[in-house]
Amino acid sequence: MESQELQRIYESQERRLKSVETRFHRFLHSQINWNARLISIQGARGTGKTTMLLQRIKEMFPQPEQALYASLDNLWFANHSLLDLVDYHVMHGGTHLFLDEVHYLKEWQTTLKNLYDDYPQLSIVYTGSSLLKISKEGGDLSRRQVIYSLPGLSFREYLAFEQLVALPVLSLKEIHSEHVELARKVTTSCAVQRVFEQYLVKGYYPFYKEPGDGYEERLLQIVAQVLESDYPAIDDALPSTIHKARRMLMILADNPPQTPNITKLCLELETDRKQGLKMLYALERAGLLSLLEASGATLKNLSRPAKIYCENPNLMYALASEAPIGTIRECFFLNQLRSGHQVVYPSQGDFLVDGKYLYEIGGRKKSFSQIKDVPDSFLAVDNTEIGRGNRIPLWCFGFLY
User: Fold this and answer.
1) For 324, which of 59, 160, 234, 334 is 20 to 30 Å away at the CA?
2) CATH number of the domain that residue 118 is part of
3) pLDDT, tens digit, for every residue of 349-392?
4) Does residue 94 contact residue 117 with C-beta atoms inside 8 Å?
5) Phi and psi at residue 205, in whole multiples of 5°?
6) pTM to 2 decimals?
């Protein structure tokens, strides 16, 4: 491959590196073992995977020939081979390869396995849609790579991103025992309830600070890209399936969380139950829906979630014709707890976490009446700056990552 053929890739990398900021890093940046030879970073579109790669290159590789960034959705790859690009990169002193949107590469698992085996001096970091299913087929990457998942901004990260207050991550037990101290630190730096309400509408995806189209429009564009580009690229979904998946998403976004009637939903979409459930779980993997299973669910009813939420409050505000505040509160709690904890729908209360902690979600007037006398039970209450005992401000649960 001639160097002039690569000019477009190099120019694209330089433009991106010049525009990326390094003032703020996502929580995952410090948790990644960057010394591993093969690293996978998965996550929904818009959560900051590309920025993380570019920050790593900008900060750690002063010599431009050492690290190469390439996005596999670049039209350049329609007429050029990734293998030829990598071969040229290594022959000219390259030691690190950063690949974005790897799901646009046909037989990507086999290709990455071959790169890993054929270039032992090369370290590879790649990102992919959360839709990706890394299987033991097609190259068996499972024993070669380290896999990480990147959600959107937590409320803690949002506060730091806005340069309001920078505080460390807290464990769930620490939030239970130290929420009053946490609240006093935060409330001295900002009007936390006002900032929290802003975050629920526009703050989960880091691109909310970028200039250009309105945030909601950008979010709807991402939803369209996930459904029209990522979904068919990964699951070989037909146009008719994409259309039905879009309708399913809008139907579910417009309904408050409840035990879904899968049969009725499939009839409305003119599809069978098997295909309907496949689309439902694809929308969850894509980071558009969050499916809550019932406590004690059996293998027989695992295919039917107890409740269905939008994946995060920002999505609900963008997709739903109405966004009931009670549903928004539950959506936020589930979203923040899902990163690192097991959450199910209990027979009593709103959420059971890690098989032990029971939570009821509500406004400032919420009482313990529904979960009284239950050990390890808590209220997560909105419109509250400082809590007391097992009555914890809802926003505090945004400090888990």
Assistant:
1) 160
2) 3.40.50.300
3) 999 999 999 999 999 999 998 888 899 999 999 999 999 999 99
4) no
5) -100, 125
6) 0.92
